[in-house]
Amino acid sequence: MADQIKGIWKDWRLHVLVFAIVALTEWIGVFSFTVGPGVVLLLPMLYAMLIGLGLFFTPAVKKMQALNAEPLIVLGVTLLIAKIGVIIGPSLPKLIEAGPALLLQEFGNLGTIFIALPIAVMLGLKRESIGMTHSVAREPNVGLIVDKYGFNSPEGRGVMAIYIFGTVFGAVFMGVISGFLATITPIHPLSFAMASGIGSGSMMAAASGSLVAAFPAFSDDIIAFAGASNLLSLSTGLYMSILIGLPLTEKMYAVLTRKKQSNAEIGKGA
Amino acid sequence: MLLKNIQEWSLLLLIFGVIASFGNWIGYSIVPLSAIPGMIVLILICLAGLILQHVLPVNIPSVAYIGIIGILVSMPVMPGSEFVVKWTQDINILALATPILAYAGIAIGRSWTDFVKLGWRSIVVAMFVMVGTFLGSALIAELVLRMQGLI
Predict the structure, then answer these.
(1) Span of A37-41, A114-118, A247-251, B38-42 with lowest mean pLDDT
(2) Cα–Cα distance, A132 to A145 (Å, whole number)
(3) Which of A132, A172, B13, B34 has the most CB atoms around it within 10 Å of its CB?
(4) Is A159 helix (H, G, I), strand (E, B) or coil?
(5) CB contact under 8 A, A101 and B145
(6) Segment A101-150, tens digit of pLDDT
(7) Structural domain harbouring B70
(8) Whether residues B71 and B139 fall in one domain
């Protein structure tokens, strides 16, 4: 990002728009409503994203602004990480105490395979489903699949589909489901805090932000656990996919599709 | 070259910091004046991490340096950490997240054409992928934390 950010500070149209979006959305504040026993929380950051997306289609935003906005996301995330760092510092002993849970919950990221793969196969998706469900499809995982199967392979198309969904709606979706699941299930907010660190800064912010809004008493612990878990996911995610996620997905895919295949083979063999 | 980058990073972090400070005021009732020391500390931590990443030959993302520096300067054993902790408490983390997602919304408009080409099945699977990783991790964390008696 070294060279691309020259002179972006001069893009006043962009910064003034973002300032206006932030002022408006923070003024509206958190909006929440109940769905059965659960609570859905809509945070200012969620409408900020949707308003930003909407503005892209108006003359107020030109292609230039959309391009210039990207390095600001990166720098904004650095500020967020710095803030998480200074929350973790004082509570480091607590974090070390919870170390086993933090490390082991990384294996929970394989939940994508057990929950989403059967659904993908059921919906009739073929090898696309391997790229789709082997992980949560952030940048390192896209790299892995493209490297192994090629960009134009079914697996490559699959991982790109989930990547695009995550980029556009990941934060909004995570923000909504994290508050909802934390209020309808007996699972502790701190467990959900650890689960919020899935390897994407904005998704982590949205998921843990909803938890903070729903359980303000735990706010610093939620942020410390979510931040630490996100750092772990960033550093272990790729190896998790290479060593366990992808082989397991291939195996499960073979098992889930065996019935169909063996039927077809019997038909052919006879 | 590095100096030029530092200048650009500082300006952008400053713009971001001003926007976030106003959000911090409107949404969380912390007047910008009392948020200034905390915001400066956070910006300095970011700059230190960005510079380290640029100068050191190893290929580690700058956010890793920034996270570690943030932890180090706020640890109780570090002299002056009580100021870092006290000042940065005046920056609400949600006030930092809102401008990130506002910029992200504007930037992802470019991915919209790809998004609308996704079939309904991809969208259904994507939602289960996210729920899967989230619930999977939460269940394991819950189990371990309960076994340790931490919750």
Answers:
(1) A37-41
(2) 10
(3) A132
(4) helix
(5) yes
(6) 999 999 999 999 999 999 999 999 999 999 999 999 999 999 999 999 99
(7) 2-109
(8) no
